[in-house]
Amino acid sequence: MLFQEMSYMAYKDAKDVAGFLYCSSSLEERTFALYRTLSDKVQNPLVKSLLLYIAYDSLKHSLIMRGIAESVSQSKPKPGDCEKKLKQVWEKVVAFHEEISKLQKLSDANLPSLAQDLAGLENSLSEEYFVLVQLKTLEYMTKEVEQLYKVDLASLKNIFELIIKDEENHRKILTSIEELFTREESVKDTTPTVRYQHPEAW
Ligand SMILES: [Fe+2]
To answer: What domain range is 78 assigned to?
Structure first.
């Protein structure tokens, strides 16, 4: 909550909000690249496709955020600004991608901890975007955008709520991957013990 309030305090005008949207768009583009790399390296076909699903959602977010940013202000952030603006979550995505790129493949045994880390990342993204549905932020955007098109505050709010909802769904998908493979592991672990204790059940 404190973090969200701090983000909220940081926006002084429409240009400032547009800067955040440009940076969020770049971040989602990197997130797309991260999930696509992950999907390439994962062996399990179901998990592979779920990761690709999240990848394309992230690309979709990147495109819509860029579109809104360009409608609000043409002045783009300078190189290096986004790393500063979105420091923690930006670093997380970059470090994650570097780590994954070094690996040749990801087996089922890697999936629970991988999914858990990614769910944490999705949580950080939602926290960042929460500022976009706050009234003051929307007012800054609407003032600029409605001069160009007939876009009102409610329709902008709907778009950002959809993005936040998508992040929530990503978290749910990742949590179910984590649970599925944790359960599979524990079933494998207990089977020999059960067989040993109950030889009549062989
Ligand atoms: Fe996401």
So the answer is: 12-177
